[in-house]
Amino acid sequence: MSTTNDKILTCIDSSIYMDSVVAHAAWVSTRLSAPVQLLHIQTPIADGDASSNLSGAIGLGVKSSLLEKLTQLDEARGKLEQQKGKLIIDHAKEMLAAEQITKAEALHRRGSLVESIAELEHAAQMIVLGKRGEEADFATLHLGSNLERVVRVAKKPVLVASRTFKPISRFVIAYDGGPSTLKAIDYVINNPLFQGLECHLLKVGTDNDANQRDLQKATTKLQESGFSVNALLRQGDADAVIANYVKTAEIDLLLMGAYGHSRIRTLIIGSTTSSMLRSCLIPVLMFR
Fold it and tell me: Residues 131, 30: one domain?
């Protein structure tokens, strides 16, 4: 088992994103020659389950036998969840094997996804997960409840898989000059994941000398590392400009900084990060 910080930590569940998550992890693993670590979290039975809800509402004469039956049901449900988790992991392993990925391990845990990632990410170079989990409401554009928390706390790059996997040949860095996007550029330069891919650099802002110089500085850094860069400065609302460029330029992967503003400010006015995750139909690789 690998103990170095090179794993692709891949979060899987029974959502419709699962196959795509595994396919994206396989793509990363192949290009980086890195092992995949599959992580499936079994959610514990809630504190407000049936037995606790009913225990105070029934008479003493029937409480004991009923609670015993409820406990048996909880145990049976737990066993079914374990079996379900095994099937999920086995399916993911079969997908990886089909892509000739033999370096894979699996963890089946009970508890919190966010806490597990916080514990495991020191041995990973990237985290891969889906936009929405198995209990998400797909009639809305709400993000999965775990996704935002993971992105906010993770120290490693987080790849959010799209609904389906498509071959990746061109990527764009949504560049704003901040520390997180500078980190993204350094990652592109120093990581074989992006070798041979078409590189785009997009900065949204006023067309002035300062922004042009900033964009040129980032462009030069990428060019000196061997990338042929299509760099653009566009004016307008960042959410709309980035989304439109992704569509019109047929971009396969978006790189961007994650949650650059304070949480309070985000709650009040929203954020480009959340907007891109909701609206983009392509995978998004985020850096903090």
Answer: yes
In this prediction the pTM is 0.83
Outline where the chain has alpha helix (H). 18-32, 50-54, 60-98, 113-120, 145-153, 179-190, 209-223, 238-248, 263-269, 272-279
CATH of the domain at 124: 3.40.50.620
Instruction: Round to whole Å and give the CA distance between 154 and 121.
Output: 8
**Domain range for 215:** 170-283
Contact between 197 and 171 (Cβ < 8 Å): yes
Whether 13 and 156 share a structural domain: yes
Pair (130, 174) in one structural domain: no
Return the closest-CA partner of residue 286 out of 153, 189, 95, 123: 153
Mean pLDDT per block of 10 residues along the chain (288 residues) reads: 73 92 97 96 60 52 71 76 88 96 91 92 95 53 67 90 95 93 95 96 95 97 97 93 94 86 41 73 92
- Shared domain check, 147 and 18: yes
